[in-house]
Amino acid sequence: MTRTTHPAHPTVARLLLVVFMPFAGGYFLSYLFRSTNAVIAPQLIAEIGLDAGDLGLLTSTYFLAFAGFQLPLGLLLDRYGPRRVQSVLLLSAALGATLFALGDSLVALAVARGFIGLGVAGGLMASFKAITLWFPKQRWPLINGCFMAIGGLGAVAATRPLEMALHVTDWRGVFLGLAVVTVLVALTIRLAVPERPIHGAGDTLGEQLAGLKRVFADLLFWRVAPLTVTTMAANLAIQGLWAGPWLRDVGGMDIEGAADALLWLAAAMTVGFVVTGMIADRCTRRGIPLSRVILVLTTLFMASQAVIVFELAPTSVLPWVAFGLLANGAALVYPLLNGHFPLALSGRASTGLNTLAFFGAFAGQYLMGAAIDLWEPLATGGYRPDAYQAVFGGILALQILSLLWYALAGAGRPSGHQEDTGV
How many CB atoms lie within 10 A of CB 269? Predict the structure, then answer.
């Protein structure tokens, strides 16, 4: 049976209802799954018996599976479209959530979290593909920012609301509930989102791989890749896991206080997604290159991390609010690349960069835990402040080096160059 397509130019209100919101539900779950361990870490440590390295490995298996599927994901999105691909993938996340709820060992939980990572691997990239198919090109940065704010709400849900849910049920009950919700979102995407003809959908595998090769041979891609990888690795590893332990061990907060601080961080990140998109939209309309906006925002993001690394205000939540507000600067690289490449390559361009970014997130989250374990733990069972300082400082140094590469590689290009306009 052939699926009926919707009109070629539906109203904005209809697009928001039948395209934006269903995919936003999947991205909300992606960020919620990504961030849960920052709150349930004490229960996992007590019940399963994990150390910092185990916790980092367990949490980062999400990123390993997520990153490993990005290149095939790009090929699938450009061939079959975001609706079909995303609705199927989310079923893997539902399976993983069920297995996680039933797991009783590090291996079982890691395998389950891998299924979750695979299942939400298309949460952002499928949505970016849908946005490029349905929305005007000049509004991509703003729409992407608004969309990512929904993911920020998922991170908000993984803070104080999750901690409150743990008073009603345990972490196993939470994950069983998430499995049910994930299936419902998958069905909504499958049934509600319209189809749209995709240029290049009939390409052979060889032609698709040639397009992927074109992406990885592009100079702009390699200019932005190191900055994207290091800043996203820092954001995902810290916000998704290590911010919670830092707030307890360095900031001196109890579990509820740390959950409240994480809530402020996630809320700031949610606002930051929208504000970043608005800034990018306003700047590009005024002729300011998107590449320059990325440079300024990522520099400020690193400055917020420096305040945390040097413990200039360890008991204040304000540095973490700044961290959240500024964390999305590097994500503007995605509309920059999508505007640089032909529309038929947009899926492969985004997922090619995402592959590197999430392998970086996997390495960052795991290696940060392994490095923290090099210091003798505190008598109270927490981790040493100087361990956090060294590890957080190390990932900040990598970001600074990548920022210098980004600035130097773009120096001397004319302001009207395609890669500088961004859209």
Answer: 27
Distance, CA of 207 to CA of 318 (rounded, Å): 50
Longest dimension (CA), the chain: 65
The pLDDT of residue 142 is above 80: no
pLDDT recorded at residue 9: 61
Distance in angstroms (rounded) separating the CA atoms of residues 96 and 111: 8
What residues contact 131, with CB distance under 8 A and at least 6 apart?
A: 19, 140, 143, 144, 147
* Residue 16 backbone phi and psi in degrees, to 5: -65, -40
* Total-model pTM: 0.71
In this prediction, residue 302 carries a pLDDT of: 97
Return d(Cα 341, Cα 327) in angstroms, integer: 25
CA-CA distance, 240 to 81, in Å (whole number)? 29
Q: Are the C-beta atoms of residues 122 and 71 closer than 8 Å to each other? A: no
The DSSP annotation for 208-234 comes to HHHHHHHHHT-HHHHHHHHHHHHHHHH
pLDDT number for residue 67 = 81
Measure Cα distances from 107 to 11, 91, 95, 374 in Å.
48, 21, 16, 23
Structure tokens at 18: 């039948």
Positive or negative, the CA dihedral 49, 54, 59, 61 is negative
Residue 194: enclosing H or E segment and its boundaries?
none
* Predicted confidence band of residue 236 (pLDDT cuts 50, 70, 90): confident
Distance CA(29)–CA(41), nearest Å, equals 19
pLDDT at 209: 80
Mean per-residue pLDDT for 174-186? 94
DSSP state of 376: P
Q: Tens of pLDDT along 260-297?
A: 888 898 889 888 888 888 888 888 888 888 899 999 99
**Separation of CA 15 from chain center:** 23
Q: What is the 3-state secondary structure (H, E, C) of 343-370?
A: HHHHHHHHHHHHHHHHHHHHHHHHHHHH
Q: What is the pLDDT of residue 309?
A: 95
Establish how many alpha carbons lie within 13 A of residue 353's alpha carbon, considering only the half-sphere containing its beta carbon. 34
> In this structure, which amino acid lies at residue 215?
V
